[in-house]
Amino acid sequence: MVMNNKIGVIVDSFRVGVREGLQRAKMVGADGVQIYAVSGEMDPANLSAAQRKELKEYIASLGLEISALVGDLGGYGFQDKSVNAEKIEKSKRILDLAVELGTSVVTTHIGIVPEDRNSEIYQNMHDACEELASYATSMNAYFAIETGPEPSARLKEFLDGLGSKGVSVNFDPANMVMVTGDDPAQGVYNLKDYIVHTHAKDGIRLREVPAHYIYESLGYDAPVNEHNTFVPGEGQYFREVPLGEGSVNWTEYLKALEDIGYAGYLTIEREVGEDPEADISKAVQFLKQFRG
């Protein structure tokens, strides 16, 4: 197996701001970048046409591409019908920005897909994603749901019911091993028709945990500890670790991506750690070893 995928980095993982993050992505040897576009300077509402043009030109001047934008609006994803209209509108504006900046992918979380297909929450999520899928398809683009909150087979069933691939998948192997216990390689085969972007992240599951303890879900609250704060998943139920040091079998995982013909980005995400730049730099080199 020889890995030919381009390597990306989420610039926000450097924790230094967009412009400096772009420069550091170039320094560590990435081919492209993913950028959060929900609030602050990258909020579509805060970027004029001239600013968008300048940003696109600046990224190109560094020899980088944009692999995707992050459009995760938090909360319960699209489980809560009362706020979905606002979230759908914001998601569309993020997709507009993505296309203008030269990428066709916006990654997002939609909430935990319920097991009960007849539940109100399932229907709320389906209706929202159906509208988003239609909009994305009209622009030859994708909203890509990040894997992790539910098993890959359940996510596939949900996607199969949308009628188009405008809502697809951002595959994160670490979320699977840390939360659902799914096998990432098998998950790739399950979701092969929908994967348009991936995150390169690694982790270890410390003990089994209900998904709603980690991901916000309408109708559920995470347990509280003696300090009356929500129990964090990191360090208690799972641990995110540098690439190659966790439970993701990278040889099997990358072989699965090769088998399904995935030719998109492997975008490094580092959400914890005291020296994210060092971890990201090592992650780039870790992935490059698979290029043969």
TrEMBL record:
Pfam families: AP_endonuc_2
Gene3D superfamilies: Divalent-metal-dependent TIM barrel enzymes
InterPro entries cross-referenced by the UniProt entry: IolE/XylAMocC-like, Xyl_isomerase-like_sf, Xyl_isomerase-like_TIM-brl
Every Xylose isomerase-like TIM barrel domain range: 23-289
Domain of life (superkingdom): Bacteria
Annotated protein name in UniProt: Xylose isomerase-like TIM barrel domain-containing protein
Organism, scientific name: Paenibacillus cookii
